[in-house]
Design brief:
Blueprint: H1 2-35, E1 37-39, E2 45-47, H2 50-57, H3 59-93, H4 96-107, H5 114-125, H6 130-137, H7 151-175, H8 179-187, H9 192-220, H10 224-230, H11 237-247, H12 251-276, H13 280-284
Antiparallel strand pairs: 1-2
Helix pairs in contact: 1-12, 2-12, 3-7, 3-9, 5-10, 7-9, 7-10, 8-9, 9-12, 11-12
Length: 285
């Protein structure tokens, strides 16, 4: 029996360990070491904090860094606001026989890649797009309006591409809540406001935290949607990393930016967990 347990342990442990070590830990260590090296005058790589000093000296880097973090928090909040009523409707309002059907309808847009979904929005919002066409047909506007390449369209696209990662944990959390909690509160005269903030939100807190962490991290590291829907003025920090790696071929500077982004995401998630008094392992379980 012990032999089977040990064999099972190694069969499941070794792939997970290799996946974590080779694809996550090892690249991050290499990223850190690379960020601490610069080329000196004779072409040799030497240890230095110059790559990090460059980040703190250039205002554009700071501005982009703070802007990306702020918008990522905003996108996470908006994604929660949009998806929570949908998750509540599916789990607590609609007939149980339609739950599966509605959940599949929600998931269907995510069966295609993010690129296709973003291009779908671009077809709708561009100057020669569907919305401008009908606005002009009905005489509401005289000439096409540029709805793309601004912060609003970029945030809208980020919320849309992140919805799946918020709504699934919300549905999972709300589905486990006994409806008798709400019925008992209503019988005792509690208002809907009190029920929402004293019963529903605390019960769904692990799902909210879990979804928020995933959405925030994916938004912070997103490159495609800010670039396509925000245009050249999107000023997303991943674009700075891309420029350093691909455009400038400055891998050491790009590694420093990448490591700073990792520190930023970890710090914000840690602060959010402390404020919400949630446990990371419980939220992700």
């Amino acid at each position: 029996m012990k032999k089977h347990i040990k064999l099972g342990f190694f069969i499941f442990f070794i792939p997970v360990f290799l996946w974590l070590f080779l694809l996550i830990i090892l690249p991050q260590i290499d990223l850190l070491l690379m960020s601490l090296k610069v080329e000196n005058d004779v072409g040799d790589m030497v240890w230095s904090f110059s790559n990090y000093n460059a980040f703190f000296k250039e205002n554009i880097y700071w501005y982009t860094f703070v802007r990306t973090a702020t918008y990522s928090i905003l996108v996470t909040f908006l994604t929660f606001v949009v998806t929570f009523p949908i998750a509540f409707y599916i789990t607590k309002v609609v007939s149980p026989k339609y739950k599966g059907f509605l959940t599949i309808l929600l998931l269907m847009p995510f069966w295609v890649s993010e690129l296709v979904r973003v291009y779908g929005w671009m077809i709708l919002l561009r100057e020669s797009g569907v919305i401008n066409y009908y606005l002009m047909q009905f005489g509401i506007i005289d000439k096409p309006i540029e709805m793309l390449y601004n912060d609003i369209s970029m945030i809208m696209g980020l919320v849309y591409t992140s919805m799946l990662f918020m709504i699934v944990p919300l549905i999972s959390a709300l589905d486990g809540m006994d409806d008798s909690y709400i019925e008992a509160a209503l019988d005792l005269g509690a208002s809907k406001f009190v029920i929402f903030f004293k019963i529903i939100i605390p019960y769904a807190a692990p799902g909210i935290v879990s979804g928020s962490i995933v959405v925030f991290m994916l938004t912070l590291g997103n490159y495609l949607t800010p670039n396509l829907m925000g245009g050249k003025n999107s000023l997303w920090f991943t674009e700075q990393i891309y420029n350093q790696f691909i455009a400038s071929f400055n891998w050491n500077q790009g590694a420093a930016f990448g490591f700073l982004l990792l520190i930023l995401s970890s710090l914000i998630i840690w602060i959010a967990l402390k404020i919400s008094k949630q446990n990371l392992s419980k939220a992700l379980s």
